[in-house]
Design brief:
heterodimer, A: 6 helices, B: mainly alpha, globular
């Protein structure tokens, strides 16, 4: 086991995390909504249409933010997914299937849920991180 | 006004994801590669986010309503069930296989990489299947 610890990476991670926390906080304080991306995204495809506008605008915001990132940051999408077509499909399928079934992802459970001290979210986060670690171990890492 | 907030929130969220490294699959996989070359930096993403959001939540939770709406829309389920556990386990597998979760995948669409489109298409298929299976 080798541990990689880079100070500038950690600082960026903390700041980026802070921004994510700020984003979720704004959505909560003003709109009363949880910034759980899978929930917001899937909600675009189901449910009553009056619930969809804010989700659509949020997703558009994500895309705008992506464009701004390209302008402000050195190559934020430089690391392409390094796996075969089928592994990408299987991965995407499992992420969609799993987040829908588990009612949340890293933002919904990991950030918002833990911030609310939700036992469901704390357990969910432990499970998906553990599952990720075991998968990585079995598949062979980077 | 609420729509403006949603849009701003989305922009900030994407900036946070990009700055933090969450949009870089190799960093995500490095974070999960505990038994190999463990890149610990991403744990600080969650730490930073929870620090900010947790503080704000603590300050606002006694309110009966948010500033621009008549109620909070918080999750209502409180008990830990099989769907939560299994779903989370499946999600973790998928996350480790491609190094992407939902948010970063959507943001990465702007890169034009075909893998992202394929990932999202498969994600929608996976999510669509859940109510069909669980009823």
């Amino acid at each position: 086991m080798e541990i990689l610890f880079d100070q500038s990476d950690v600082l960026r991670a903390l700041l980026g995390g802070g921004l994510i926390g700020l984003s979720a906080s704004i959505l909560l304080i003003f709109n009363g909504r949880i910034a759980g991306i899978s929930g917001i995204f899937f909600g675009l495809f189901q449910g009553p249409s009056e619930q969809k506008n804010w989700r659509l605008v949020f997703v558009l915001g994500l895309l705008c933010g992506g464009v701004i990132s390209i302008l402000l940051l050195p190559d934020p999408f430089s690391s392409r997914v390094q796996t075969s077509f089928w592994q990408v499909i299987v991965a995407g399928f499992l992420v969609g299937f799993g987040t829908r079934m588990g009612s949340g992802c890293t933002s919904g459970h990991g950030v918002c849920g833990i911030s609310r001290l939700s036992p469901r979210s704390m357990i969910a986060t432990i499970v998906f991180i553990t599952s990720g670690i075991l998968t990585c171990w079995l598949v062979g890492g980077v | 006004m609420r729509l403006l907030v949603s849009g701003l929130s989305g922009i900030l969220f994407a900036l946070g994801l990009s700055l933090s490294g969450m949009t870089q699959p190799h960093k995500v996989i490095g974070f999960l590669d505990v038994f190999g070359k463990w890149d610990v930096s991403l744990i600080f993403v969650m730490a930073g986010a929870i620090l900010v959001h947790g503080s704000v939540y603590t300050l606002t939770r006694r309110r009966s309503a948010p500033l621009l709406d008549s109620q909070f829309f918080l999750p209502q389920r409180h008990h830990i069930d099989r769907k939560l556990l299994m779903g989370s386990a499946f999600f973790g597998i998928g996350w480790a296989l491609a190094g992407l979760c939902t948010g970063p995948a959507i943001v990465s669409l702007v890169s034009g990489q075909w893998e992202i489109f394929a990932f999202l298409a498969a994600m929608l298929l996976g999510s669509w299947l859940v109510p069909k299976i669980t009823g």
